[in-house]
Amino acid sequence: MPPAKDPMFGSEKIWVTRGLIEDLERQAQLHQTRNSPGDARNYENDFNQTDVLDEGQTTVLPTENSPGGTPSAQLTNPFSHHAPRPWYLGVSSNWAFNRRVLEIVHERLTGVHAPTDNLSFDGTLYELGWNGERETAGSQHLVPSADYAMFLINAVKFHCGQMFHLFDETTFMQGFKNFYDSPADADIHSFWYIHFLLILAFGKAFVARKKMPRKAPGSDLFVQAMKLMPDIVFLIEQPLQAIEILCCKALYLQCLDFRCAAYNVIGQALRITLEQGMQTDMRNQGLDELHVQRCLNVFWTVYILDRQMSSLMGVPLALKDSEISTPLPTFAGAPQKSMALQLHVKLSKTIAQILNTVYGSEGRLTKRFIQSTKSSLQSIAEVTVQLRETFEELRGQSSGGLSRLAAHLDLLHHQCVVVATRPLLFSLLNKRFDEPSGISSLIKSSSSAKALLQMCVESSQHIVAVLDRLKDQSLLESFLPFDLEAASAGSMVILIAPVLDANLLSSSAPWLDILYSVLDEMVAQGQVQASKRKEELQRLQQVFEQLPLPLTETPEVQQPAPLDSGQDGTNAYSTIPGNGLDDFGFMDDAIWRTDLTAEQLMAVADSLDLDGFEWMTTVSSGLGND
């Protein structure tokens, strides 16, 4: 145990040892156990609070005079002993949601916090081999030949160009020609050269065959670009290309699981777009049309990345939709590309709507939960119609393979459903520990709750089905993080549902097996994050297997009497007959069997009411503060 530090008199904080904190935690837990039988902690509140994971060896406690500061307020933070700094648990973050579930189940079963060993944290999976220092002088770095560089650029266009605007092809390729026509005269400190290195870094990541642990393909090119990149003060000299460079930087960092850094970088890009007035209608202002179209492409790419990165972080949004008046760009002769961007923007707006309304202030579920969810589902339903009309392959009517762009939008579409409805799943999981025998009847008593839960489960199943189809067609993304985030969102719902009610999902095992095969494919392609997500999912599955079967009063699926856990420690719910893939129709057309139509979404949205949700809006749950 480290020695106690000297008190810091004259300030508002005092330093205490880790041992003292552990003793206080044990005393607090003992006190809670004595005074609240059967309910050690009210976790229905915890999901909706801005928790911080404080994992330093020494903990700073607020004094009595510090704002909101009693020692007990700090004792409820999970994962509090091993990592070097605090971590914020965002309300809509998949990463945070999974850790909340792990903490709740582990502590309610064992009485102690979940250990943090082998859990991944931001920026810890890859080594960049760089200390952050910039390069002020130097010679030209090694770059590939022109033909190989062109190959890498085309790889970036396939993997990213359909979803994001990372460079303006006309001006970028003119710089490409100038560079290879006269490489000796190239300015290695120019914006174009920095941009070029970043695009090559992406290209190498997409085509690399040999993977190295903890070193991402192309990271050497990324680091070279970062060493040459000027300070934010000088980016304003070429704002359009500067924003494109920042988008590349943010997306690359997101791919390496540097989520906090990526979020901050895209924030810089967003502020430059605002300073340049790109959120306003720039048409008919005497500007060149090509310049205006490039500005539109740049702005909406920043918008999409900002919305998605904010959601993955679970943090408030920096720009309101009501403050945006700029139109979407036009793509002459490419109507599908125009519609794809329109859908991408609408889904990003839906993400913002969910983040702002479903979770409420500080992420708290309020009495507005039903109305907010209804409104979000209506927005999702509008996108569903356009999605199906634009991409026929998503309806199973295409003779060809699944479009990579269509799959990306479809996965994002169903993640919106999951993120909008899983707060209810989380609340029921908490209640499951307090009233194990009453969950099924509680779900049955509310048609609205049952419909939302079933929709959440079916969207998660659809996510798994789409990912499985992408795996079969060798289209899974091994570097971009979006397929992995979809897998993370769907896996937790599939894991929780059978624990609540077998009528929602009789067993998670077959679906998790498919998810594991998807993650294995990502790992084989060198995605380090997929390996950690698989380990965490398996760990959660082991914890969940310690839970007894839910007592379903009148099961709608064939199910024998509850069984005890086997000697190997596996839970009976994973061995019930009738849970094979064939039993619930997961064959080649499973991707369509689990899809949700606009009519279904609207029907559920229209039927939602407060009936049966009183338990979510009581004072004791902390959800009634509006």
TrEMBL record:
A molecular function GO annotation: zinc ion binding
Record domain Xylanolytic transcriptional activator regulatory: where: 262-335
Main location: nucleus
Any single biological process term in GO: DNA-templated transcription
GO cellular component: nucleus
PANTHER family according to UniProt: THIAMINE REPRESSIBLE GENES REGULATORY PROTEIN THI5 (PTHR47540), ZN(II)2CYS6 TRANSCRIPTION FACTOR (EUROFUNG) (PTHR47540:SF6)
Entry protein name: Proline utilization trans-activator
UniProt lineage: Eukaryota, Fungi, Dikarya, Ascomycota, Pezizomycotina
